[in-house]
Design goal:
Radius of gyration: 21 Å
CATH superfamily of the largest domain: Metal-dependent hydrolases
Helix content: 25-40%
Number of strands: 18
Number of helices: 15
CATH architecture of the largest domain: Alpha-Beta Barrel
Structural class: alpha/beta
CATH class of the largest domain: Alpha Beta
CATH topology of the largest domain: TIM Barrel
Bound molecules: zinc ion
Length: about 450
């Protein structure tokens, strides 16, 4: 305990620190000064004076959730086309829409996503899309934290690939030192199949020269993955290694079809994985063997993917899917224990994104804190906090959200942002956008 003052003290019935399974305070407090946590402990040992106390009786305070892979502006396509094969969905909806996107679409789509995520306890998101400077603008407005990259797709057009890589690099360099301190940037080649070997080599070179790492999709769709294997005559991860793209600190999304030796190679190179169970199952991409990835030494975070393939950005709701999927794939109830899955959505997610000082409730860490109301019937009786978070909680149970020390959601309500306006504007943008691509 330290003498002195805190700006805010959150007092909760339970404080889950995510330092280790046993480090829980019931009841406990989290003291915040500026944008940092100064102290966490048992309420009986609180000696700090606070300017403001937030009383969270019946609630669990925990680290803000980290969504390790998404495409925030894709909220505009939520539910627009369902139940078609992945390639049809990409060719007939996603890619035509993306050719017609405007900056305004990206701004309002992303702001809607950020509102949705913040209210559901997601304080940090790893985003991969176009016109990303508009996502930065939305983030300035919402108060969220983001790891951001501008997408690079080549397809059959190498000129497009090179132009988009220049754009991705310019974005990453311009916003890496954002004054809010809440932005980190990556280079964003879309995937091993949508960018050719030469462009991937250029992306690697651009990233290494500028001290950046990479956020990309990898081994999501079996057909695309096999096509790259056949073209290269080797496993796709080996090709990525040859072109220099396995840069430590990078994060790959999905990995559904990668082999054990590829997982081991990514782990040795310091590339982390975002597992996106709901999206993988919804687009019938396959079932990722996360237990194997972890056995090979990979750091694994959890992502929702975009709202067009989930259809929500509610990471808490997805925890239970992540856990039961792992048990079913392995045929082993011991796979995916609750603490481990909560860690993937918090401390391991922060580790996957190389965000130091994030993901735990500990003195000196960034003050991204959320509370979940566990007093409700669907949590009772409360035998185990981690089980409650994984199997009973959804984003609708979130009551308070702090990002960078700022109180952004108070008792379930977003403060400082007109939620009704965001919804109206996003609906309008979605309507205009779909009008352009539908015959
Ligand atoms: Zn994705």
């Amino acid at each position: 305990m330290s003498e002195g003052k805190a700006d805010v003290v959150i007092k909760a019935s339970h404080v889950v620190t995510m330092k280790s399974p046993g480090e829980v305070y019931s009841p406990g407090y989290v003291a915040i000064r500026g944008n940092r946590i100064v102290e966490v402990g048992s309420t009986g040992r609180l000696h700090l004076k606070a300017k403001e106390t937030v009383s969270c009786r019946g609630q669990v305070a925990m680290p803000g959730l980290v969504n390790a892979h998404t495409h925030s502006p894709m909220t505009l396509l939520r539910g627009a086309v369902e139940d078609v094969p992945l390639r049809v969905w990409l060719n007939d909806l996603v890619w035509p829409v993306e050719r017609n996107l405007t900056e305004e679409d990206v701004y309002w789509g992303s702001l809607l996503a950020q509102v949705e995520m913040l209210k559901a306890g997601v304080t940090c998101f790893n985003d991969h899309y176009f016109y990303m400077h508009k996502v930065v603008e939305a983030l300035e407005r919402s108060g969220a934290r983001g790891a951001l990259c501008q997408a690079v797709i080549e397809g059959e057009d190498s000129g497009r690939g090179r132009r988009e890589l220049e754009g991705s690099l310019a974005f990453a360099k311009k916003f890496r030192e954002h004054p809010s301190g809440r932005v980190k940037t990556y280079i964003g080649p879309h995937s091993e199949y949508s960018c050719g070997r030469e462009l991937l080599a250029r992306a690697a070179e651009a990233a290494r020269t500028n001290g950046l790492s990479v956020h990309m999709h990898f081994a999501e769709d079996r057909g695309y993955y096999e096509r790259v294997s056949a073209r290269e005559g080797k496993e796709p991860a080996l090709m990525l290694d040859e072109v220099g793209l396995l840069i430590g600190g990078s994060v790959f999304a999905h990995g559904v079809h990668m082999s054990q030796s590829e997982a081991s190679l990514l782990a040795r190179r310091g590339v982390a994985l975002s597992h996106n169970p709901v999206s993988n199952m919804k687009v019938a991409a396959g079932l990722a063997d996360v237990t194997m990835f972890k056995e090979q030494g990979m750091v694994v975070g959890l992502g929702t993917d975009g709202a067009a393939s989930n259809n929500a950005l509610d990471l808490l709701r997805d925890l239970r899917v992540a856990a039961i999927l792992r048990k079913s794939t392995r045929g082993d109830t011991r796979a995916g224990p609750a603490y481990e899955v909560v860690a993937e959505a918090t401390v391991d997610g922060a580790k996957a994104l190389c965000l130091k000082g994030l993901g735990k409730l500990e003195g000196g860490y960034l003050a991204d804190v959320v509370t979940v109301d566990v007093s409700q019937p669907h949590f009772q009786p409360l035998h185990d906090l981690y089980s409650a978070i994984v199997y009973s909680a959804t984003g609708r149970d979130v009551r308070h959200v702090f990002v960078d020390g700022k109180h952004i959601v108070e008792d379930g309500r977003l403060v400082g942002l007109d939620e009704g306006l965001v919804i109206r504007m996003a609906r309008r943008r979605a309507h205009l956008l779909l009008e352009k691509v539908r015959p």
